[in-house]
Amino acid sequence: MKHYTSIHDIDNIDTWIEEAKSLKSNPLKHKELGRNKTLGLLFFNSSLRTRLSTQKAALNLGMDPIVMNVSGDAWGIEFGDGTVMDGNTAEHIKEAAAVVSQYCDIIAVRAFPTLTDKAKDESEQVLKSFIEFASVPTVNMESATGHPLQGLTDAITISEHAKVARPRVVLSWAPHVKALPHAVANSFVQAMHKMDVEFVIANPEGYNLNPQITGDTVVYHNQEEAFKDADFVYTKNWSSFEDYGKVKNTDPNWMITKEKLGNAKFMHCLPVRRNLVVEDAVLDTDSSLVIQQANNRTFAAQLVLKKLLENL
Ligand code: CP
Asked: Which residue ranges does the record assign to the Aspartate/ornithine carbamoyltransferase carbamoyl-P binding domain (predicted)?
């Protein structure tokens, strides 16, 4: 594996899950692998989990992580080819990526979508530019359309907590006041397609995800029907894909409640808005796996970094 940009980079998810569990049981086993290697983490957007867990993963492998908030602290980066740079951007990605490659053995990038320009978001301009112009491997820490470190984490967490051989997993939309990206939901769908689970999606009319990603996954517009016999309910808000980036529905009846959840386990990538997306009575009980998920972010990242280090 040269880069980790999408769930499609996982050749065998079952093997990867077992490897991640092994790292979790002995996180410092490969402490020598990353000695004298530097991981550069570049954030164009906010983060708590990704920022800390990816650094922790690097430290567990003996790497030296260095972090930059690109949007706040770096020169404005130009991504357009042939642009006359007489506006707000001061440095081109061609130089920026080449320069950072001299300081780092692996580069990890977070860059969210615009949610206003569908074509630009679908083109994954920022992530693909780093892959093109950096001379070292690139890791996707959440791009315009995918969050594959989160998707791998979620697969590990489901594997750890499944009580039946083929659990029923529901990805459910929930209300939110802001327009949110599709990246987490997309990568979760792709991860579930690689696992042996009964996977369905629940979302209101007008909120179907990109059909090129969901494929023939069954989509319910009735949440109660979707939740019947569910073992895991993975909840996430996303803005409309069809009416791109719009908030068309904030119906509180789609919030996750203890009553709706029944015996299913609740999952969410975090951060989550309490009593808007999910009620306290879910998060404050054993029904919730969100803290366990966040813990697994370290081992998903550690597995990805280990595979890239082994291939340097
Ligand atoms: N789940 C996740 O990616 O969290 P952060 O946005 O805090 O990194």
From this structure: 2-160
